[in-house]
Design goal:
single chain, 450 residues, alpha/beta, seven-stranded mixed sheet, six-stranded mixed sheet, 20 strands, binds nicotinamide-adenine-dinucleotide
Length: 450
Amino acid sequence: MKLDVVNPATEKSIAQLERAGVEETDRAVARAKAAYPAWRAVKPADRTRLLRKLAGVIEEHGEELARLETSNVGKPLGDSRWEVGMVADVFHFYSGAVEKHYGETIPVSGGVDMTFREPLGVVGLIVPWNFPLMLASWKLGPSLACGNTVVLKPAELTPLTALRFGELALDAGLPEGVVNVLVGPGSVAGERLIVHPDVAKIGFTGSTEVGRRVMAGASATIKRVTLELGGKSANVVFADADLERAAAAAPSAVFGNAGQDCCARSRILVQRSVYDKFLALLTAAAGRVKVGDPEAPDTEMGPLISAGHRDKVASFVDGKTLFRGTVPAGPGYWYPCTLVEARPDDRIAQEEVFGPVAAVIPFEDEADAVRIANDSEFGLSGSIWTRDGARAMRVARAIDTGVLSVNSNSSVRVATPFGGMKQSGFGRELSMHAMDGYSEVKNVFMSTDG
Ligand code: NAD
């Protein structure tokens, strides 16, 4: 049976694709394995040029890729343009990283000791549907820069930009077999990549549940893994914060991408002394979010990815809400922006909703805020709003997440490390840290005895 790719804003089929099974996965790995020795041997300056060319090709096709992403994910076109811009920036960054990923020389007696950064071989990259091409690029950039060849498995729901990327990589001059795109179910193609003896590493972004399977499956061949998993990030608003700014920024931090964002600040913690005031500002700001046709220029939020996912999101909202927005009538997997008051141990405050639903939770003081923020199995991202610089630093150090922002909800930049603590995963993407995740340190001692 073919894979039917659907536009979530129209519920119409936009592509029908063959599904890769175990055989196709094995063939993709074999192609990547055959291409590895030559790709690894490409002179660093030439690999730099090829990746820079790839960044340029992405830029030239930016509008096409953005429109393709919007039609497949239902995200606003402005968001897709921003994401494709980041994809190009990622390849610009890692084109420059090729020649800057140095080894060391270490003082030892009797000779010279040095380290090299060796590529791993064939790496399997498994990505989710919420930021399809952008998250793929975070793995492709450092993988290719380090000299690995890749098999990229996009999510079944959103394979279109990955497939187009595979063509553009060839147009940019990357040799055949260096980038292989595999469209198939996670339970078949993904599982096969995880246990395949010729795959040296799995770079995985997705749910914590599947992340556990990746880690368990990889153990048979001692594969390296990077896991970027779920989140339940806290947006902590202290009484001394610029409340207008914090409230104006909060909706996009949880309703952006219709809440289908691992970094979504889906727990809004507000100091009790300003709770009512902040809530009034927050609900007013939530009411201004423009929900509708993803292709319209002023749309800020589109539909959810699928009908099944909408049911899951809806299952979290059973009682009274503080705010509930409106959605377009007609086709599309719409779900309104929703604010719910919650206690820290409520299901809605503990589990990842992955939809436009925020739990608003009052807190008493700094210690209480840190306790609630850390009362989660996740530890991906978060924000702290305060005018007290010392408090900002104390709380930033005390919250157990991999990425934090102060007086801002922005935590993703090409040049800075991104990744989780606790059950949000491990390993770091972006920045030079990602280069460490796609290479191995080799130590060589050379005797200088005559
Ligand atoms: P998912 O875990 O269901 O799927 C992710 C990918 O894994 C898909 O390509 C899927 O086909 C594949 N997969 C599924 N089952 C598999 C298996 N048994 N073996 C191998 N591969 C398998 O996640 P999703 O629903 O696509 O995405 C949503 C999740 O991703 C959320 O939990 C979200 O928080 C997380 N996410 C995390 C980050 C991050 O950087 N931490 C970023 C985006 C999304």
